[in-house]
Amino acid sequence: MNIIQAENYKQMSELAAKKLIEQINRKSDSVLGLATGSTPEGLYEEIIKEYKEGNVSFKDVTTFNLDEYVGLSKNNDQSYYYYMHKLLFDHIDLKTDQANLPNGDAKDLQEECSRYEASIQQAGGIDIQILGIGLNGHIGFNEPGTPFSIQTHIVDLDESTRNANARFFDSIDEVPLQAITMGIDSIMQTKQIILLVSGSKKAEALEKLVNGPVTEDFPASILQKHPNVTIIADSDALSELS
Ligand code: F6R
After folding, report:
1. Residue 34: inside a domain, yes or no?
2. Where does the pLDDT of residue 158 fall: very low under 50, low under 70, confident under 90, or very high at 90 and above?
3. Where is the Glucosamine/galactosamine-6-phosphate isomerase domain (predicted)?
4. 88: CATH
5. Could you tell me if residue 35 is inside a domain?
6. Could you tell me if residue 175 is inside a domain?
7. Is 153 near ligand 1, meaning CB less than 6 Å away?
């Protein structure tokens, strides 16, 4: 794993944006894997800035998001669909039908999981995947105990994950109980991964990811086995790594 140390959150975001933009300028029809949460917000701001300055175009790009809550409509301001449109898609020239998220409001969720996985394959696979990490080592919404062999699937969210995400909702009761997420196997099939980590709260998780045993009890540990992972972390997040 290649670890890049950023001084702070802003620099982490700038370095990640630079890598994504280089990828698109090298291959205009790149397939990007995107994440939500607090960590990539700065990355999306940087991308919009670069786009407005004319340094990149998304007109041939396809994107796939990692995950979506079950039971929230697209218009719900807590859905990841809403998040992605508000923070990125509405500000760049990415075509709407090339921006993919799992539909957490689908009638048949199982069928939606298969459809989503198949559409990633049809697009030729993901060239570059952005990841964040949860305090319990989750990537996407693959919680501890998720088999490494699994593809896009429905998950019951851990209490700790619901608590961590409650900050975006009016109360914990409103945080959905389930989500659809790309599986560990789907993530491992991506050609390149950029994992973003910021803040001292994530330092322990980052240390475990890099130095701990590869175990389904700490899903992110599987990244030790991926051939092309770059971790971009700020100094607070790196504080437990010597
Ligand atoms: C989001 C996702 C999650 C987050 C993780 C960290 O699409 O898949 O794995 O990356 O929960 O979230 P933040 O960045 O809010 O700390």
Report:
1. yes
2. confident
3. 9-226
4. 3.40.50.1360
5. yes
6. no
7. no
Ligand 1 atom closest to Cα of residue 40 = 14
Domains in the chain, number: 1
Residue 161 CA: nearest ligand 1 atom is: 11
| Residues found in the chain | 242
Distance CA 40, CA 9 (A): 10
The set of residues, in sequence order, having a beta carbon less than 8 Å from that of 178 and lying 6+ positions away, is: 69, 70, 71, 154, 155, 156, 157
Residue pLDDT, tens place only, 122-157? 999 999 999 999 999 999 999 999 999 999 999 999
Q: Which residues pair with 113 in a beta bridge?
A: none
7-26 confidence digits (pLDDT tens): 999 999 999 999 999 999 99
Residues facing residue 217 across a β-bridge: none
Active site residue 67: yes
Domain hosting residue 77, numbered range: 2-154+180-234
Per-residue buried b or exposed e for 146-178, using 16+ beta carbons within 10 Å of the residue's own CB: bebebbbbbbebbeebbebbeeeeeeeeebbee
- DSSP codes of every residue in 170-183: SSGGGS-SEEEE--
Tens digit of pLDDT for each residue in 30-53? Answer: 999 999 999 999 999 999 999 999
Q: How much distance in Å is there from the Cα of 65 to the middle of ligand 1?
A: 11
Ligand 1 mean position to 134 CA, how many Å?
6
Instruction: Convert the pLDDT of each residue in 191-223 to its tens digit.
Output: 999 999 999 999 999 999 999 999 999 999 999
Asked if residue 169 belongs to a domain, the reply is: no
